[in-house]
Amino acid sequence: SWTLARILERARRTRFGRDHGLEKVRTHAAFRRAVPLRHPHALDPWWIRARQGEKDVVWPGHVARWVPLGRGPVPLTAAGLRSARASGWDAFVPLLADLRRDASEGCILLLGSTHPLPRRAVLWTSGGSRPSTLQLPAGLARRARTTSSARDGGDVHGVRSCIGRDVRVLLGKPAHVDRFAADLLAHGRRLGLGHRSLTDLWPDLEILDVGPDLRRAAPRVDGGARQPNRRQVLSVLEVGAVAMQDRLDDLGLLPIPDRGVFFEFIPYGEEEGPEPRRLGLHEVEPDTDYAVAVTTNNGAYACLTGYVVRFPDVRSRRLVVVERPVESRRGDLPAALSA
């Protein structure tokens, strides 16, 4: 894979690269021999050194920022930021192509606060302890509004300021979108408004879920007769989009393999074994569950993500998520709201 080759070319000059002999690695087979599968915490010996300010540990130069993830932060490099900008475009293009009206004329609402990052390039949606990076195209960023920071994994604040806006796009984690919708409509009822659904309030609304929703095949946000179109985008290790739903008539997610992320798929159950098979995207088989590992230009190498996916149709390479990391389930919708 040329993506892996590009990552290894930069990684050879790092501390991690020297420790694993990456100067001799040129193929995926050699990479599998040199770098074992690891969970994120097993990369701490290198990540901690980089977090302490040491240069050229997991990627040339210093790490730009650290992203909260489960038990500890993961690196986000300058190269990773550039990839996040590019993959964000990839995730937005199908949505923009199908908008009923021009999004630049309305408002884009992000659930959660934005965090300051280099060049203000990457927007973090959904708040809480595990934000997801996603880049808004520059022409749309001027129309973006954010709700205040979430508490306890839910984003239920600042709803009053949203009722008078013309919102065209809503972004956030699926459970947070549902919770926000329920609170917004409840507030409207207290004001005596007649809105029964988000489409009553915002007729041109489209929703982009940052993260897969495994609770139901067709997520709903309210009881209205007409539902907004709803797409999903997947982020692993919370450092950018790695797969996106490009078609409304197909719930599968199309991997984004050329934005600084190299995928490996391990038949589920083998990832903890002594000799796991580590397959490239072109080697997967239909209707087989795979654990997902990634090597990225953020300094993660053969890193298990906790996601388990399946490929219903290997010709299209679209995947469906059948299991997600335990830590990503925090803040899901309470049972009383998910009915």
In short:
The protein has 339 residues and is an alpha/beta fold. The chain has 9 helices and 15 strands.
Q: Mind explaining what this structure looks like?
A:
The protein has about 350 residues and is α/β, with parallel strands linked by helices. Helices cover about 25% and strands about 20% of the residues. It contains 9 helices and 15 strands. A hairpin with a 6-residue loop joins strand 4 and strand 5. The chain is globular, with a radius of gyration of 20 Å.
**Arithmetic mean of pLDDT:** 79
The rough form would be described as globular
Side-by-side strand order of the widest sheet: 6-3-7-8-9-10-11
Hey, roughly how much beta strand do the residues contain?
15-25%
User: Taking Cα atoms only, what radius of gyration do you get, to the nearest Å?
Assistant: 20 Å
Number of strands: 15
Order of helices and strands: HHHHEEHEEEHEEHHEEEEEEEEH
Low-confidence residue ranges: 113-131, 149-156, 329-339
Helical proportion? 10-25%
The end-to-end distance, rounded to whole angstroms, is: 44 Å
Please outline the major beta sheet: 7 strands, mixed
